[in-house]
Amino acid sequence: MEKKDVLAGLAALAQETRLDIFRLLVEAGPEGRSAGSIAEALAVAPATLSFHLSALTNAGLILQRRESRSLIYSADFGRMTGIVGFLSENCCGRSANAGACIPVCAPTPEAANGEKTASPRCGC
Amino acid sequence: MEKKDVLAGLAALAQETRLDIFRLLVEAGPEGRSAGSIAEALAVAPATLSFHLSALTNAGLILQRRESRSLIYSADFGRMTGIVGFLSENCCGRSANAGACIPVCAPTPEAANGEKTASPRCGC
DNA sequence: GGGTCATTTCGACACTCATGGAAATATCGT
DNA sequence: ACGATATTTCCATGAGTGTCGAAATGACCC
Protein backbone atom coordinates (compact mmCIF):
# COMPACT_ATOMS: atom_id res chain seq x y z
CA MET A 1 0.00 0.00 0.00
CA GLU A 2 1.62 3.20 -1.15
CA LYS A 3 1.31 6.55 0.47
CA LYS A 4 -0.54 8.06 -2.46
CA ASP A 5 -3.17 5.33 -2.30
CA VAL A 6 -3.67 5.94 1.39
CA LEU A 7 -3.92 9.65 0.75
CA ALA A 8 -6.55 9.07 -1.91
CA GLY A 9 -8.48 6.78 0.42
CA LEU A 10 -8.40 9.23 3.29
CA ALA A 11 -9.50 12.10 1.05
CA ALA A 12 -12.38 10.00 -0.21
CA LEU A 13 -13.53 9.05 3.28
CA ALA A 14 -13.05 12.51 4.77
CA GLN A 15 -16.45 13.65 3.63
CA GLU A 16 -19.61 12.92 5.50
CA THR A 17 -21.74 11.73 2.60
CA ARG A 18 -18.98 9.49 1.29
CA LEU A 19 -18.23 8.05 4.71
CA ASP A 20 -21.93 7.28 5.06
CA ILE A 21 -22.00 5.65 1.65
CA PHE A 22 -18.98 3.54 2.46
CA ARG A 23 -20.35 2.42 5.81
CA LEU A 24 -23.60 1.47 4.13
CA LEU A 25 -21.67 -0.64 1.64
CA VAL A 26 -19.59 -2.25 4.38
CA GLU A 27 -22.79 -3.16 6.11
CA ALA A 28 -24.20 -4.52 2.86
CA GLY A 29 -21.24 -6.87 2.48
CA PRO A 30 -19.96 -8.32 -0.78
CA GLU A 31 -23.40 -8.31 -2.41
CA GLY A 32 -23.38 -4.55 -2.31
CA ARG A 33 -26.21 -2.20 -3.07
CA SER A 34 -27.59 -0.43 -6.09
CA ALA A 35 -26.98 3.26 -6.62
CA GLY A 36 -30.67 3.98 -6.37
CA SER A 37 -30.98 2.13 -3.10
CA ILE A 38 -28.07 4.11 -1.67
CA ALA A 39 -29.54 7.39 -2.87
CA GLU A 40 -32.80 6.55 -1.20
CA ALA A 41 -31.24 5.39 2.04
CA LEU A 42 -29.18 8.54 2.40
CA ALA A 43 -31.58 11.00 0.77
CA VAL A 44 -29.03 12.27 -1.71
CA ALA A 45 -29.79 13.58 -5.19
CA PRO A 46 -28.83 11.13 -7.94
CA ALA A 47 -26.28 13.42 -9.54
CA THR A 48 -24.66 14.12 -6.18
CA LEU A 49 -24.55 10.45 -5.31
CA SER A 50 -22.98 9.60 -8.62
CA PHE A 51 -20.31 12.21 -8.00
CA HIS A 52 -19.44 10.66 -4.66
CA LEU A 53 -19.57 7.10 -5.94
CA SER A 54 -17.07 7.95 -8.61
CA ALA A 55 -14.82 9.60 -6.02
CA LEU A 56 -14.91 6.43 -3.94
CA THR A 57 -14.31 4.30 -7.01
CA ASN A 58 -11.34 6.40 -8.09
CA ALA A 59 -9.89 6.02 -4.62
CA GLY A 60 -10.19 2.26 -5.04
CA LEU A 61 -12.47 1.90 -2.05
CA ILE A 62 -15.49 0.49 -3.81
CA LEU A 63 -16.23 -1.74 -6.78
CA GLN A 64 -18.89 -1.46 -9.43
CA ARG A 65 -20.77 -4.13 -11.33
CA ARG A 66 -23.83 -4.06 -13.46
CA GLU A 67 -26.88 -6.16 -12.72
CA SER A 68 -29.39 -5.65 -15.47
CA ARG A 69 -30.53 -2.06 -15.24
CA SER A 70 -28.89 -1.32 -11.90
CA LEU A 71 -25.30 -0.58 -11.03
CA ILE A 72 -24.30 -2.35 -7.87
CA TYR A 73 -21.57 -0.95 -5.67
CA SER A 74 -19.72 -2.86 -3.00
CA ALA A 75 -16.93 -2.09 -0.56
CA ASP A 76 -13.40 -3.23 -1.35
CA PHE A 77 -12.50 -4.67 2.02
CA GLY A 78 -8.95 -5.47 1.07
CA ARG A 79 -8.24 -1.87 0.20
CA MET A 80 -9.75 -0.63 3.43
CA THR A 81 -7.73 -3.11 5.45
CA GLY A 82 -4.62 -1.85 3.69
CA ILE A 83 -5.37 1.73 4.62
CA VAL A 84 -6.03 0.89 8.24
CA GLY A 85 -2.84 -1.14 8.25
CA PHE A 86 -0.83 1.75 6.87
CA LEU A 87 -2.20 4.12 9.49
CA SER A 88 -1.48 1.65 12.26
CA GLU A 89 2.05 1.09 11.11
CA ASN A 90 3.02 4.61 10.19
CA CYS A 91 0.86 6.82 12.30
CA CYS A 92 0.40 5.05 15.62
CA GLY A 93 4.00 4.87 16.75
CA ARG A 94 6.29 1.96 16.07
CA SER A 95 8.00 1.23 19.35
CA ALA A 96 5.12 1.04 21.77
CA ASN A 97 2.88 -1.45 20.02
CA ALA A 98 3.49 -4.34 22.32
CA GLY A 99 0.27 -6.23 22.81
CA ALA A 100 -2.53 -3.88 21.90
CA CYS A 101 -4.45 -4.80 18.77
CA ILE A 102 -7.45 -3.64 16.91
CA PRO A 103 -9.56 -6.40 15.38
CA VAL A 104 -9.95 -6.12 11.67
CA CYS A 105 -11.91 -7.84 8.96
CA ALA A 106 -10.61 -11.18 7.81
CA PRO A 107 -8.45 -10.79 4.73
CA THR A 108 -10.38 -11.04 1.50
CA PRO A 109 -9.38 -13.89 -0.79
CA GLU A 110 -7.34 -11.61 -3.03
CA ALA A 111 -5.50 -10.12 -0.07
CA ALA A 112 -4.91 -13.52 1.48
CA ASN A 113 -3.37 -14.94 -1.64
CA GLY A 114 -1.25 -12.73 -3.85
CA GLU A 115 -0.72 -9.01 -3.31
CA LYS A 116 1.90 -8.67 -0.63
CA THR A 117 0.00 -7.34 2.36
CA ALA A 118 2.40 -4.99 4.09
CA SER A 119 0.47 -5.00 7.33
CA PRO A 120 1.97 -7.49 9.77
CA ARG A 121 -0.77 -9.32 11.54
CA CYS A 122 -0.24 -10.11 15.16
CA GLY A 123 -0.31 -13.80 15.83
CA CYS A 124 -3.14 -13.96 18.29
CA MET B 1 -14.91 8.57 19.35
CA GLU B 2 -17.71 10.25 17.45
CA LYS B 3 -18.18 10.28 13.74
CA LYS B 4 -17.54 13.99 13.45
CA ASP B 5 -14.19 13.60 15.22
CA VAL B 6 -13.20 10.83 12.86
CA LEU B 7 -14.30 12.92 9.92
CA ALA B 8 -12.19 15.84 11.14
CA GLY B 9 -9.20 13.55 11.64
CA LEU B 10 -9.50 12.03 8.20
CA ALA B 11 -9.86 15.44 6.57
CA ALA B 12 -6.77 16.62 8.39
CA LEU B 13 -4.70 13.61 7.33
CA ALA B 14 -5.98 13.54 3.76
CA GLN B 15 -3.43 16.08 2.64
CA GLU B 16 0.11 15.17 1.76
CA THR B 17 1.90 17.87 3.71
CA ARG B 18 -0.17 17.23 6.80
CA LEU B 19 0.25 13.49 6.59
CA ASP B 20 4.00 14.05 6.35
CA ILE B 21 3.93 16.36 9.34
CA PHE B 22 1.96 13.87 11.36
CA ARG B 23 4.24 10.97 10.48
CA LEU B 24 7.23 13.07 11.43
CA LEU B 25 5.64 13.75 14.80
CA VAL B 26 4.77 10.11 15.32
CA GLU B 27 8.37 9.27 14.64
CA ALA B 28 9.49 11.96 17.06
CA GLY B 29 7.41 10.43 19.85
CA PRO B 30 6.06 12.27 22.88
CA GLU B 31 8.93 14.75 22.96
CA GLY B 32 7.72 16.14 19.67
CA ARG B 33 9.43 18.65 17.44
CA SER B 34 9.55 22.40 17.05
CA ALA B 35 7.69 24.12 14.24
CA GLY B 36 10.96 25.36 12.79
CA SER B 37 12.46 21.90 12.76
CA ILE B 38 9.40 20.54 10.97
CA ALA B 39 9.47 23.34 8.43
CA GLU B 40 13.09 22.62 7.72
CA ALA B 41 12.64 18.86 7.50
CA LEU B 42 9.79 19.14 5.04
CA ALA B 43 10.89 22.30 3.21
CA VAL B 44 7.64 24.12 3.82
CA ALA B 45 7.22 27.89 4.17
CA PRO B 46 6.61 28.97 7.77
CA ALA B 47 3.19 30.44 7.05
CA THR B 48 2.10 27.33 5.22
CA LEU B 49 3.37 25.07 7.98
CA SER B 50 1.56 27.10 10.59
CA PHE B 51 -1.64 26.75 8.58
CA HIS B 52 -1.30 22.97 8.53
CA LEU B 53 -0.27 22.70 12.16
CA SER B 54 -3.37 24.54 13.19
CA ALA B 55 -5.48 22.27 10.99
CA LEU B 56 -4.00 19.22 12.72
CA THR B 57 -4.47 20.83 16.11
CA ASN B 58 -8.10 21.65 15.42
CA ALA B 59 -8.64 18.06 14.38
CA GLY B 60 -7.24 17.01 17.75
CA LEU B 61 -4.42 15.02 16.21
CA ILE B 62 -1.51 16.94 17.64
CA LEU B 63 -0.68 18.84 20.80
CA GLN B 64 1.19 22.10 21.26
CA ARG B 65 3.43 23.27 24.07
CA ARG B 66 5.82 26.15 24.39
CA GLU B 67 9.48 25.63 25.22
CA SER B 68 11.09 29.02 25.57
CA ARG B 69 11.07 30.56 22.13
CA SER B 70 9.93 27.45 20.29
CA LEU B 71 6.55 25.88 19.98
CA ILE B 72 6.79 22.12 20.20
CA TYR B 73 4.23 19.91 18.52
CA SER B 74 3.65 16.26 19.27
CA ALA B 75 1.28 13.57 18.03
CA ASP B 76 -1.78 12.69 20.09
CA PHE B 77 -1.50 8.93 19.93
CA GLY B 78 -4.73 8.29 21.77
CA ARG B 79 -6.69 10.23 19.21
CA MET B 80 -5.06 8.42 16.35
CA THR B 81 -5.77 5.07 17.93
CA GLY B 82 -9.38 6.09 18.29
CA ILE B 83 -9.65 6.94 14.62
CA VAL B 84 -8.06 3.70 13.52
CA GLY B 85 -10.36 1.87 15.89
CA PHE B 86 -13.42 3.55 14.43
CA LEU B 87 -12.39 2.66 10.91
CA SER B 88 -11.74 -0.93 11.87
CA GLU B 89 -15.05 -1.30 13.60
CA ASN B 90 -17.26 0.58 11.20
CA CYS B 91 -15.54 0.32 7.88
CA CYS B 92 -13.90 -3.09 7.76
CA GLY B 93 -16.98 -5.25 8.11
CA ARG B 94 -18.32 -6.50 11.41
CA SER B 95 -19.05 -10.15 10.89
CA ALA B 96 -15.81 -11.41 9.43
CA ASN B 97 -13.30 -10.13 11.95
CA ALA B 98 -12.52 -13.47 13.51
CA GLY B 99 -8.84 -13.62 14.24
CA ALA B 100 -7.14 -11.01 12.11
CA CYS B 101 -5.68 -8.08 13.98
CA ILE B 102 -3.57 -5.08 13.27
CA PRO B 103 -1.08 -4.16 15.96
CA VAL B 104 -1.52 -0.70 17.30
CA CYS B 105 0.32 1.58 19.66
CA ALA B 106 -0.13 0.89 23.34
CA PRO B 107 -2.87 3.05 24.78
CA THR B 108 -1.66 6.37 26.13
CA PRO B 109 -2.19 6.93 29.86
CA GLU B 110 -5.23 9.11 29.25
CA ALA B 111 -6.81 6.55 26.97
CA ALA B 112 -6.00 3.71 29.35
CA ASN B 113 -7.64 5.42 32.30
CA GLY B 114 -10.75 7.49 31.79
CA GLU B 115 -12.31 8.33 28.45
CA LYS B 116 -14.32 5.33 27.40
CA THR B 117 -12.36 3.84 24.55
CA ALA B 118 -14.94 2.49 22.16
CA SER B 119 -12.50 0.26 20.35
CA PRO B 120 -12.60 -3.27 21.71
CA ARG B 121 -9.13 -4.69 21.95
CA CYS B 122 -8.74 -8.29 21.01
CA GLY B 123 -7.47 -10.36 23.88
CA CYS B 124 -4.23 -11.57 22.39
C1' DG C 1 -37.93 0.63 -32.60
C1' DG C 2 -40.43 3.30 -28.95
C1' DG C 3 -41.17 3.82 -24.07
C1' DT C 4 -39.40 3.45 -19.58
C1' DC C 5 -36.39 2.91 -15.76
C1' DA C 6 -31.63 3.49 -13.62
C1' DT C 7 -27.73 6.05 -13.62
C1' DT C 8 -24.22 9.10 -15.35
C1' DT C 9 -22.34 13.27 -17.55
C1' DC C 10 -22.57 18.21 -18.33
C1' DG C 11 -22.69 22.80 -16.78
C1' DA C 12 -23.03 26.33 -13.48
C1' DC C 13 -22.66 28.07 -8.93
C1' DA C 14 -21.11 29.01 -4.22
C1' DC C 15 -17.84 27.62 -1.19
C1' DT C 16 -13.58 25.94 0.91
C1' DC C 17 -8.63 25.00 0.74
C1' DA C 18 -3.49 25.45 0.03
C1' DT C 19 0.12 28.63 -0.64
C1' DG C 20 3.33 32.22 0.69
C1' DG C 21 4.82 37.28 1.29
C1' DA C 22 4.47 40.80 4.68
C1' DA C 23 3.36 42.38 9.11
C1' DA C 24 2.35 41.31 13.94
C1' DT C 25 3.23 38.77 18.27
C1' DA C 26 5.89 36.32 21.79
C1' DT C 27 10.19 35.07 24.05
C1' DC C 28 14.86 35.53 25.15
C1' DG C 29 19.66 37.59 26.10
C1' DT C 30 22.06 41.73 26.99
C1' DA D 1 14.38 48.80 26.38
C1' DC D 2 16.46 46.79 22.18
C1' DG D 3 17.65 43.53 18.76
C1' DA D 4 17.38 38.85 17.39
C1' DT D 5 14.86 34.63 16.88
C1' DA D 6 10.59 31.68 16.41
C1' DT D 7 6.15 31.50 15.02
C1' DT D 8 1.66 33.14 13.96
C1' DT D 9 -1.90 36.09 11.79
C1' DC D 10 -3.45 38.73 7.87
C1' DC D 11 -4.26 39.09 3.15
C1' DA D 12 -4.66 37.96 -1.64
C1' DT D 13 -4.73 34.56 -5.17
C1' DG D 14 -5.42 30.36 -7.77
C1' DA D 15 -7.13 25.70 -7.57
C1' DG D 16 -10.24 22.33 -6.09
C1' DT D 17 -14.84 20.56 -4.05
C1' DG D 18 -19.84 19.67 -3.23
C1' DT D 19 -24.36 20.39 -4.98
C1' DC D 20 -28.00 19.66 -8.18
C1' DG D 21 -31.10 20.59 -12.42
C1' DA D 22 -31.20 19.20 -17.08
C1' DA D 23 -29.73 16.43 -20.76
C1' DA D 24 -27.47 12.15 -22.32
C1' DT D 25 -26.49 7.15 -21.99
C1' DG D 26 -27.39 2.21 -21.17
C1' DA D 27 -30.50 -1.68 -20.50
C1' DC D 28 -34.81 -3.84 -20.52
C1' DC D 29 -39.56 -5.13 -22.33
C1' DC D 30 -43.25 -5.27 -25.47
Could you characterize what this model shows?
Two copies of one chain form a homodimer. Chain A is of the alpha+beta class. The first copy, chain A, has a domain at 3-78: Orthogonal Bundle (Arc Repressor Mutant, subunit A), CATH 1.10.10. Helix content of chain A is 52%, strand content 14%. The first copy, chain A, contains six helices and four strands; from the N terminus they run ααβααββαβα. The first copy, chain A, has helices spanning 3-13, 16-28, 35-42, 46-58, 77-91, 109-112, and strands at residues 33-34, 62-67, 70-75, 101-103. The first copy, chain A, has a three-stranded antiparallel beta sheet. In chain A, strand 2 (62-67) and strand 3 form a beta hairpin. In chain A, helix 1 runs antiparallel to helix 4. The radius of gyration of chain A is 16 Å and the shape is elongated. The two termini of chain A are 23 Å apart. Residues 106-124 of chain A have low confidence and may be disordered. Chains A and B meet through helix 1, helix 2, helix 5 and strand 4 of A and helix 1, helix 2, helix 5 and strand 4 of B. The first copy, chain A, binds a DNA duplex (30 and 30 nucleotides) through residues 15, 17, 34-36, 39, 44-55, 66, 68-71.
Task: Count the E strands of chain A.
Answer: 4
Low-confidence stretches of chain A: 106-124
Mean pLDDT of chain A: 83
Discrete helix count of chain A? 6
What name does the CATH topology of the domain at 3-78 in chain A carry? Arc Repressor Mutant, subunit A
Order of helices and strands of chain A: HHEHHEEHEH
Largest sheet of chain A, in brief, is: 3 strands, antiparallel
CATH architecture of the domain at 3-78 in chain A: Orthogonal Bundle
